[in-house]
Amino acid sequence: MELRKAHFPGSAPIDAYGNGGFRFADMSHRGSLLFLPSGIHGWDAREDSPLTVDLFAPLLDEEPGKIEVLLIGTGREMRFIPQDVRSALREKGIVCDPMNTGAAVRTYNILLAESRAVAAALIAI
């Protein structure tokens, strides 16, 4: 898994989602995104792709302690996260919370505004 160059070097609230992408920080992106402490990055996940440890590798490479909660927007419907992915995240001290992408966007914005150690892995819808 290759991490794409950051679209934005830091955290930013999500202004809109839908039509296959996201708007944030006066920019737009088509496709899925990772909102990490190191920046906002393109992500190769799709609604029909399996959720694997490799897919979450960029999160696992973040500096320890920078992420406490990972919101996983799984698309239009909530999907369960495989146990091996949960275990890999837990080993890094990250609790994951899967939900549909809309709920993940709203929750991310709230936790970000509260200055919480939050990240989001959002599958575009």
TrEMBL record:
It comes from the Bacteria. Signal peptide: none annotated. CDD domains: Mth938-like. Pfam families: DUF498. InterPro entries: MTH938-like_sf (IPR036748), NDUFAF3/AAMDC (IPR007523). This is Mth938-like domain-containing protein.
